Amino acid sequence: MLTNRQILQKAYQCAWVIIKLVIPFSLICDLFNYFGIIEHIAFIFNPISEALLLPPGTALALASGFLFNLYAGIAVATRLELTPYQWTIFGIFLSICHSIPLETAVLKKVGMPIVFHSLSRLICGLLGAWLFCHLTNNPADFSVSIIDKTQKLNQNYNDTKFGFYLLSSLNDAFLLAIKIIVLVTILILLFDLAKKIPLIANFLNNNAYLSALIVGILLGITYGAGILLNEFKNIKKQQLWLVLTFLMLAHGLIEETLLFTFFGADSIPILSFRLGFALIALILTYLFMKKAQLKSKKNQLQKNMSKFIKKSDIKHLKITSSNLGEILLNSLLLTTKSNSNLLDMRKRIKEQVFSDSPCVQEFLTHLTGCPYFGQEPILYLNPVHYLVLYGLAFVSGISITLIGISQPVYYPLVLVGWILTTGATSGFQLVIIHNAAHLKVTRSHKGDAWLARILAVIILMPDADTYTKGHRKHHNRRTHQTNEDNTIKTLFDDLGFKPGMPVDYYWGQLRQLINPLFLAKYIVKRLNNCLLNTTSFTSKVLAWSVWIPLVTLVTLTNGWVAFLITYGIPVLAFYTVIHFIRLCVEHKALTVEIMKNRNKLYEALCTDAVFVGELPPEDNLSGLKNTLAWTKWWLCMLFWHGMIRWLIIPADVVVHDYHTRMAGSSREHWEMAIWERQKQIELGCPGWPTLYTEQWGFINAMNSVFTSFSELPADYQF
User: What confidence category does residue 640 fall into, taking pLDDT thresholds of 50, 70 and 90?
Assistant: First the structure.
C-alpha cells in the first residue's frame, strides 16, 4: 500500500515527464510555424494526412505523437486550430497509435513482440481514423479553413517580433502543460486512494490481472509502467497475454480521451473505436490461444491412447476430434442414466449446428444453459466477469434509451435500451445479490454485504440485509416451501395461487401482471422496503444518501420524463413482472409424503433446471424450405429463448437445481454452475439419491410447476 507521500511523489514524477515533453515540443512547433518550416517538411507525411482528410500541418503532429508521446502530438496540433471534427479524427488515430518506441520497450519486457505491437497499433489507428472520416459527414470547408488559418497564422508570426513571440509561446506551453498535469495527477491520486478501500483492495488482491488492467486503463502504459511491470509478475501467462492485447489498444482511456475532449473532440467515436478494436483483438487472441490449447490436448490424448493401444495390442482403434465425444458419451451411458430430453435435444443441436466449431458450441451452451456430454468450457468465468457484464449493460441500456428518446428517428433504440437495462437489473438481483447473500462473490462477509447493499439501492430492491436473512430461511429444509418461505408468500399470497386448482387457474392468475394497479401496488411495496421499512439502519442511510440527491437533481433539471422512461419502466415495471414469472419456475411441489419428510430426496427433486431451446430442423429438408426452417430456428433461439435467458433465467439461475443441492457448500462454484452440474451428472451425482432433473422450454417448466401445485390436495397447508 502506498503512503500519501509516495502517491504525491509518483504524481510529481509523471508531471516532470509531461513538462519535459510538452514544453519543448510546443516551442519547436511554434518555431517551425514562425519560420515556415512546416510547409517544407509536411509533404513527407502528406499520404497519411490526405487519407485522413486532415491539413498538411497535422501530419507532423501525427508523427510527433507516434514517435515521441501523445502530449508531443497534441502540442503540435494545438498550433493548427483544428476544428472539433478534425480533432476527433486526430484523436482516434493518436489515442491508438502514440509513443510507440517507448511503450514497445515497456511491453517487450513482459514478452510482447515488437513488430506485432507496432504494426497492430499503426494499422488499427489508421483504420479507425479512416473509417470515421469516410463514414461520417465531413463539411467541405473544414480543410480549406484550416489551411487558410495556418497561412494567416504564419503571416502573423512573420509580422511579430521574435522575442515577444517566444515569450508568448512559452506562456501557452506552460498553460498546456499545467492543464495536462492537473488531469493526470487527479487520476493517479484517485486510483491510489481507491486501492486503500478494503473492498477494492481485497478484490484486486484476488484478481491480479484486474489490478494491472485498471492501472493500464486509467494511467496508460507510459505513466503506469512501474506499476504495470510489478503487477505483471503476479499474472498467469495466459491472462498476461490477454491483458497485454487489450491494453495495447485501450490504455489510458479516461486520461487520453479527456485530453482530446478538452480541445473539442467527440469522445464517443474515440472510445468506441479503441474499445471495439481492443475487444476484437482480445477475442481473436483468446480464440487463437484456445485453439492451440485444444490442439495440444488432442495431441497429448492421442499420444496417451497410442501408448494404451500399444500396451493392449489394440490395432484398429482410431480417436479423432469427431468421434471422441461419441466414445465418451457411450462409455458414460454404460454407468449412468439421464433424462432422454436432455440427451436428445442437446445432442441434436450439437450434431446439426456447427458441430466442429468449439466457439459456436460454447455459445449454444450458454444460450441453452446445457452443455453436451464431455464438453469442456472455453471461457472460465468468475464474479468479476458478471459484475462487468451487468454493469456495462445497465449503463449502456440507460444511455441507449436516452439516445432513443432524443429524436423520433431513434425511437426503436428505446426497446434495445429497455432490454439491456431490464436484463442487467435481473442479473444484479438474481445473480449478484443472490450469491452475495451466500458469501460467494467477494468471498468475504463485509465485501459481499456492501456489494449487495449498493446494488439493492441502485435497483430499488428490498434492503440486502433483510433479503439475506429471508433467503437463508428459504434454504432451510424445515421452512422451505412453507408459509415462512418468501417464494410461497409471493405466489400464494400476492398472486393468489391455491393448491389443488386446475393448471389454467394458475395461468389466469398471471393476468394480474398486466394490471397497472397491481404493479403499482407492488412497486410501492418495493420502494417502501428499500427506503423506509428496512431492518438495517446502514442500508437505509445508504439508500437515502443516494436517492435524495438524485431525486433533487432530476427535479431541478426537469428530467422526470426521461428518468421514468430510462429507469422507471425497465427497472421498476418490467423487472417486477419478471420477478413474479421467475418464481413460477423456481420450485415445484412434490407428493405430500415427500413434502412432509423434507429429506435429501425432497431436496434433490423439488427443483428442475430450466433449459431453453428447441430441436433443429430435420435433415431431409432442402432448398427454400431448408433455408426458411433454419432462419426460423435461429430467430427463435436468439429472440425468444435468448431473451428469456437474458431477462428471466440469467447466468446460474438456469440450473437452480444445482444451487438447491449445493447451497452453503464450499464446493459450489456458481460462476461455472452449468459446467459443474454437468460434471456431477457424468459422475452419476455421487451422494444424491437421484440424478438432476430438467425441463426444456420455459413454458414447459411453468406448466410442470403449475401441474405440481394442481396435484396437491385442495386443503394442503404450506
Answer: very high
